[in-house]
């Protein structure tokens, strides 16, 4: 990828300025504008489509509510007729004469009253098998043809409310959505089929207000009401929408007559119903996004015109720029050939004019700089010689640290030859201490080496104080002695114990160093003294000073140095732990783990 980018940049740099401007215009102007236009158009289309989707969803929910309100009336009526004694006696009663049958029908006015009282109901009819009851349009004797009707068979086979689109001679008026329900008369071992016709004008009126095509269909796909009245009485499959009858509730993208439609389906199952209704609303996608497409085409036209004008302007500007740039290029070519008597007369305050003036200044500066180069070079050589001289003098003034050790060794030999063996031994140990401090590095050493240096230090201190004032004990097992430790760690703790712990006591001072390996493989080192100890307040100050990073010139800087070296090298939990009681002494210990282990 990086190689490809490099090749593209090289190819671009090899083009003439005019061509670079054309390409830059296309990349910087055309491509972003085109991308922005496509994005905005897509966003506009999506927003318009989303708004139409939300509106249609809300409208479908509203229709479901309105239809439920309309259907509540026939449902309540059917519930009343299920327990109506007058209906049962009228339908199941046996009549001997025409007069008795006529009088029974004349006395039963509930169907007529309900049709007049409720605008949701356009008619009610009861189909029965009582041959003694006359047919008056509301009570109809069942015929084999009626019994074969799907709505009749469904109601007879399964109790509950059925919603069917009933048409033909079996209804009072034309095509109607009807509530169909079997009414049992167990005392008479018979039953009837109640048909309550719903006023479809209410459905058609509410659907006329919808902005998009909307239909109400029964469970068989028969359209019982529609925004387009021409669809009423037809099946959804007849409208090139065969999938709508099988799809569940939801929102779908469908191809209808070769066009993209967005379809919204909502199922309605009223109370006590076995079958329900389906509300279907759909709109053609092109009808919603057509305006967005027209805006996009208009934008493309404006973009094309703007690009044409822009290209012409780029050509004019690039011609002016390249002409002046070529003049400047010729002047620079003369400079490259060693001719410094060049003057650029390009006028203007733009970048090329400024570049021309800077070019003239550059030529003048070059002439001045060429005169200054030799002087600058001479001064630099002189400075280097002076610096070397200073370094030699500094080196000559340095004392070789090994001189101290060699001098002490010579003194020791002279003392030994005179028979002062104790003093010679002390001088030898002092020499070893000095050599150790001179040669110390950052590498870890075995604890045994560190303890050997500690022993030298303590022997020297015994010599200073006298044998009765200081005693010491160094205890370390073989495994602990072989463990690597940072140099000068234990020695610093011992020095601190001698100087600050035992300095104020007379005789009987004791320093103990113990080292052991714990069960989990850690090296524990303890340095204890029986000196003056510390008061609780002083002990707390010392503990806080261990983590203090501020500059400290006090006598606890050695402890802090050890603590911070341990914490940095082995973790914060490996720092020093200090315990002390005033008048009893001080105990300092730490734990570390072998990093290589």
Describe this structure in words.
This protein is an alpha+beta fold and 597 residues long. The protein folds into three domains: 16-333, no CATH class; 340-386, no CATH class; 466-593, 2-Layer Sandwich (Heat Shock Protein 90). 54% of the residues lie in helices and 19% in strands. The protein has 17 helices and 17 strands. A hairpin with a 3-residue loop joins strand 16 (577-581) and strand 17 (585-593). Helix 9 crosses helix 10. The radius of gyration is 55 Å and the shape is elongated.
Structure in a nutshell:
The chain is an alpha+beta fold and 597 residues long. The chain has 17 helices and 17 strands.
Derived structural class: alpha+beta
Measured by DSSP, the beta-strand proportion falls in 15-25%
Lateral arrangement of strands in the main beta sheet: 2-1-5-4-3
Secondary structure: helix percent: 40-55%
Q: Mind describing the biggest β-sheet?
A: 5 strands, mixed
Number of strands: 17
Query: What is the number of independent domains?
Result: 3
């Amino acid at each position: 990828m990086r190689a490809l980018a490099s090749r593209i940049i090289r190819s671009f740099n090899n083009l003439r300025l005019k061509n670079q401007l054309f390409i830059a215009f296309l990349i910087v102007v055309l491509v972003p504008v085109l991308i922005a236009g496509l994005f905005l158009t897509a966003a506009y289309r999506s927003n318009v489509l989303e708004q139409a989707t939300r509106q249609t969803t809300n409208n479908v929910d509203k229709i479901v509510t309105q239809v439920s309100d309309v259907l509540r009336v026939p449902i309540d009526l059917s519930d009343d007729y299920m327990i109506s004694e007058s209906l049962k006696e009228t339908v199941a009663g046996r009549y001997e004469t025409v007069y008795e049958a006529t009088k029974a029908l004349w006395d039963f006015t509930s169907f007529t009253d309900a049709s007049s009282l409720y605008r949701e109901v356009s008619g009610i009819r009861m189909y029965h098998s009582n041959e003694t009851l006359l047919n008056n349009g509301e009570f109809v004797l069942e015929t084999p043809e009626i019994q074969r009707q799907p709505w009749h068979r469904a109601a007879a086979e399964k109790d509950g409310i059925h919603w069917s689109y009933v048409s033909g001679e079996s209804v009072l008026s034309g095509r109607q959505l009807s509530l169909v329900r079997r009414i049992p008369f167990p005392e008479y071992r018979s039953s009837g089929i109640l048909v309550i016709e719903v006023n479809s004008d209410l459905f058609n009126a509410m659907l006329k207000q919808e902005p998009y095509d909307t239909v109400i269909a029964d469970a068989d796909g028969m359209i019982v009401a529609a925004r387009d009245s021409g669809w009423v009485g037809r099946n959804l499959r007849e409208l090139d929408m065969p999938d709508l009858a099988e799809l569940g509730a939801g929102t779908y993208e469908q191809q209808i007559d070769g066009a993209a439609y967005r379809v919204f389906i909502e199922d309605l199952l009223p109370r006590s119903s076995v079958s329900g209704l389906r509300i279907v609303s759909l709109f053609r996608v092109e009808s919603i996004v057509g305006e967005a497409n027209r805006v996009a085409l208009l934008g493309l036209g404006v973009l094309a015109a703007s690009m044409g004008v822009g290209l012409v302007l780029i050509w004019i500007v690039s011609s002016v720029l390249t002409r002046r740039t070529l003049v400047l290029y010729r002047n620079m070519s003369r400079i490259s050939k060693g001719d410094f008597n060049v003057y650029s007369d390009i006028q203007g305050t733009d970048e090329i004019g400024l570049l021309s003036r800077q070019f003239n200044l550059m030529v003048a500066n070059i002439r001045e700089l060429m005169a200054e180069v030799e002087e600058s070079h001479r001064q630099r050589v002189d400075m280097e010689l002076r610096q070397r001289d200073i370094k030699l003098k500094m080196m000559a003034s340095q004392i070789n640290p090994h001189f101290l050790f060699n001098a002490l060794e010579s003194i020791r030999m002279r003392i030994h030859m005179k028979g002062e063996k104790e003093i010679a031994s002390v001088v030898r140990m002092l020499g070893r201490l000095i050599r150790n401090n001179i040669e110390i590095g950052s590498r870890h050493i075995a604890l045994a080496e560190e303890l050997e240096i500690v022993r030298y230090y303590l022997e020297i201190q015994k010599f200073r104080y006298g044998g009765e004032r200081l005693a010491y004990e160094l205890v370390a097992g073989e495994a602990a002695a072989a463990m690597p430790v940072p140099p000068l760690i234990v020695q610093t703790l011992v020095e601190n114990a001698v100087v600050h712990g035992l300095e104020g006591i007379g005789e009987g001072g004791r320093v103990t160093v113990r080292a052991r390996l714990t069960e989990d493989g850690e090296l524990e080192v303890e340095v204890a003294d029986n000196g003056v100890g510390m008061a609780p307040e002083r002990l707390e100050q010392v503990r806080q000073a261990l983590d203090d990073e501020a500059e400290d010139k006090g006598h606890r800087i050695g402890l802090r140095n050890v603590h911070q070296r341990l914490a940095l090298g082995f973790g914060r939990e490996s720092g020093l732990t200090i315990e002390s009681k005033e008048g009893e002494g001080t105990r300092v210990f730490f734990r570390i783990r072998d990093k290589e282990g």
